[in-house]
Amino acid sequence: MTTIKTFAEGLDDYTGSLAQEVEKLELEQARGALNRDEQMDLLGDLRQAVEDRLIRPWQQRARVGLLVGLVLIGAGNFLPGGLPNGSLLRAGVTIAGTLSLLLAAHGAWTAWQYRAREGAWLKDLEATVQKGGSVLDAR
Prior knowledge:
139 residues, mainly alpha, 80% helix, rod-shaped
């Protein structure tokens, strides 16, 4: 079961700023002074971290895979068949291009899954905070 603390720790960078924000909210909750705006700031920071560390790298892999795949498939079509083993070379380049396109599709699918799953969870947390709940109590 994922808590906001484990989610933040999983996304955190070398500074540990997200985990520190969660710890600060835990201290404020213990004092009874939990602020809704600070919780929303944390959710905004988590949303940005999901974008930067999970979604964007997969989108970049998808773009590169698409470009490489299209170039390889295009190059495979223009290779002369009269070369020694030309048809074998053409087939190898085309297969490499096709594999690159499959990797691009996998990257796009993975980015979409992250956006859907983490985005929905963060949206639910935002709704909880808007209703007066706490991000620290959510699972």
